[in-house]
Amino acid sequence: MFEGIGTLVLFSISMFVGSYLAGLVPLAFKLNETGIRFISIFGAGLLIGTALSVIIPEGIEALYEEKEESMGLKNKLPVDKLTVDMIESVKRVFPDAKKITKREVFHQEIDMNENRMCPEHEHKHKTHAIGLSLVIGFVFMLLVDQVTHIASKMTASTGRQKITATVGLVIHAAADGIALGSASSLNKNGIQFIVFFAIMLHKAPAAFSLVSFLLMSNLEKFKIKKHLLIFSLAAPVTALLTFEFLAVFGSENLDSSDTTGILMLFSAGTFLYVATVHVLPELQSTAKGNGELVIISSSSPGHAHSDSGPKYSGKELIVLITGAILPSLLSSGHSH
Which domain of life is it from (predicted)? Predict the structure, then answer.
């Protein structure tokens, strides 16, 4: 597992530097909002494509990987030879033990039948874990947004709404870190890169938008940089902690691949929520160019859902679809 730590450290440093620099842009000069919009649309497509075509399949494979290996070992056991040796040993000690040997053979057959049934039960259990992990990831982000939204309303009169917005974005970033950390534990550099690329393309606009929102809130620049620093550190630190957790857990528990698979599927649920509930609806509501920036948090100003349907131009649709398909194309050369 430690083979992927070098790549993870490199990606973590890149995430921190990239997010922080993207957040500094509004402090230096005004960026073209059309460019930000296209980056956000492409990033949303990447999140959807990465969740559906990369993270979910890899999470399922991690869940079943250990089971297949253990089944292979069980099938290689010389059960018949063990049974014969046992019968011969009993015969040497008890020459007239015909009934006992038959009984032993009978119980051996029962044990073999039970062993055949256990994998079926385990298969059903793992199938339920797939859906449950996805739902928990989705619901987790829903609860985070609801709590953030309520806290934002409660703190609006006290001027602490900007802190609430930062906290919400930090939790979102931490969920991204879980995705990268669990992907890194698979020791598959291609998967690591796809997840990292998807995270970066939606973290950069989020950092830009966070700082823009804090500027509109008339927060001092040195305090804005503190908020940005915390946001930029959230994903890298969580990624490293997740990787370390899986490494330690794996050394003490044989079901480490189950934990990795569950975390991957949990992350897929968070990716789907961020892309489908926040990014795309926000982009639809700002399609007419009203100047609102996309902040991936329900506490952000101007958070509204359009009732008149999608408002993407032809170019934007192409960018969105390209982003959704790209992860599948990048992972097509990856052998399972």
Answer: Eukaryota
Please give the DSSP secondary-structure letter assigned to residue 310. -
User: Cα angle at 45 between 43 and 46, to 5 degrees?
Assistant: 65
Which of helix, strand or coil describes residue 31? Answer: coil
Q: Are 8 and 243 in contact (CB under 8 A)?
A: yes
CA distance 273 to 176: 12
- The sign of the CA dihedral 159, 165, 168, 174 is negative
Tokens, residue 146: 């609801």
Gap between the Cα atoms of 15 and 19, Å rounded: 6
DSSP string, 271-302: HHHIIIIIIHHHHHHTTT---PPP-SSTTSTT
Q: What is the pLDDT of residues 257-309, one digit of tens each?
A: 677 888 888 988 888 888 888 777 777 776 554 444 444 444 444 444 445 55
Residue in 34, 31, 35 with CA at minimum distance from that of residue 21: 31
**Of residues 143, 183, 169, 168, the one with CA closest to residue 50:** 183
Judge contact between 67 and 137, C-beta under 8 A. no
Instruction: Spell out where the chain has E strands.
Output: none
Q: Check: CB of residue 97 under 8 Å from CB of residue 90.
A: yes
**pTM score above 0.85:** no
Return all residues near 221 (Cβ < 8 A) that are at least 6 apart: 27
Residue bearing tokens 């804005």: 224
CB atoms closer than 10 angstroms to residue 102:
11
| Per-residue pLDDT, 15 | 92
